[in-house]
Amino acid sequence: MDRLRLATVWLGGCSGCHMSFLDLDEWLLELAARVELVYSPIVDHKVYPDNVDLCLIEGAVANHDNLELVHRIRERTRVLVSFGDCAVSGNVTAMRNPLRKTEPVLKRAYLELADVSPRIPAEPGIVPTLLDRVAAVHEIVPVEYYLPGCPPPAERIRTLLSQLVEGREPRLNGGLIKPG
Amino acid sequence: MAAKTLTIDGQMVGAAEDQTILEAARDAGIHIPTLCHLEGVQDVGACRLCLVEVTGINKLLPACVTKVTEGWEVRTSSERLQRYRRMVLELLFAERNHVCAVCVANGHCELQNLAVSLGMDHVRFDYQHPRLDVDLSHRLFGMDHNRCVLCTRCVRTCWYIEGAGTLNVAGRGEKSKIITDLNAPWGDSTTCTSCGKCVMACPTGALFYRGVTVAEMERDRGHLEYIVTAREKKQWIV
Description:
The complex is a heterodimer of chains A (about 180) and B (about 240). By secondary structure, chain A is an alpha/beta fold. Chain A has one domain: 3-Layer(aba) Sandwich (Rossmann fold), CATH 3.40.50. Chain A contains six helices and seven strands. Chain A has helices spanning about 15-20, 25-35, 65-75, 85-90, 105-110, 155-165; strands at about 5-10, 35-40, 50-60, 60-65, 75-85, 130-135, 145. The termini of chain A are far apart. In chain A, about 40% of the residues are buried. Chain B contains six helices and ten strands. Chain B has helices at about 20-25, 80-95, 110-115, 155-160, 195-200, 220-235, and strands at about 5-10, 10-15, 50-55, 60, 75, 135, 140-145, 165-170, 175-180, 205-210. In chain B, the strands form three sheets. In chain B, strands 2-1-5-3-4 form a five-stranded mixed beta sheet, with helices on one face. In chain B, a hairpin with a 6-residue loop joins β8 and β9 (about 175-180). The longest helix of chain B is centred in the middle third of the chain and has 17 residues, at about 80-95. Chain B is globular, with a radius of gyration of 19 Å. The model of chain B has no long low-confidence stretch (mean pLDDT about 95).
């Protein structure tokens, strides 16, 4: 049997969900035997490939780069999982949404709080511009499954992944869907 | 007092005539989810999570404010009710800024617990992300409107248990908010006794003790029930 083509991506989040993924420790070896990791912040692939079976998406859709990537992921992937609270609900990444615009956020971070050479970053083609409204992944493209948690504990990730890798319909309930 | 006999989820239940469906169900060991209900404080049927079906009645009835009736057949967890409850919950999450990860009540929140027990793994409605204030003018307590679900448990506690009448609801619809006195800062209130019962009553992280940080806000709800039981039944039981 072909190994499942797995991708993980890191959009507008803190990478905590990926840290929790690495917390799976030796189970990662078992997982590695069952899947081929085709795209991830922890491997060196530059372009999101075609024919991906499963993608865990960490983070909210916060900038134009995220927006473009999430559409490409949807086109090229069979099953998407919103991986962690930022992907599921926007969470901390979306806490700037009540301000409605990016300007006050950028001013605060890069001008008011700057120690040296205050300047709002503007490097077209290098630094992606922020979206005015941070969105949860399913607000942009359809998502098959949701894995809440900030971050989702390793055990929760294992429960979902083992179900998906075995080709079963995932069932997360009880404490496994607790946000926060 | 006359007894009424009815069935709840097919189970024959006897109840006193002044009992609500919620009380009768709980006495019979049947759980109905609630949010605006708080033991010891009178009910208003605001949150709609305890809606139940009764055979022969077209509309859904809030169990917390509906008295038992002889012969009723009540259903508390049909597929339709579960669907509506989840929808109510998602609307509550979408309406304001509930960020569990950085909330004082994380791990001790009734809204968060409901998300788990009602199977809400995501919200299908657009998040409104309203811009709301946090009132930190009181020397002991804080009020974060971002986390408020407008259940009015704090208002009812303030008026009917403490008798201070400091808290109230102002505005309509999405503009509704909990206010202190005539919408003055809480710290300037001339009626607040600083008793803290409202903080004990709050189901979320909207009311908290100043100085607590993420996940530190725990409360003992039993205090309110204890006070009311002692006052009304002269029973000093914990």
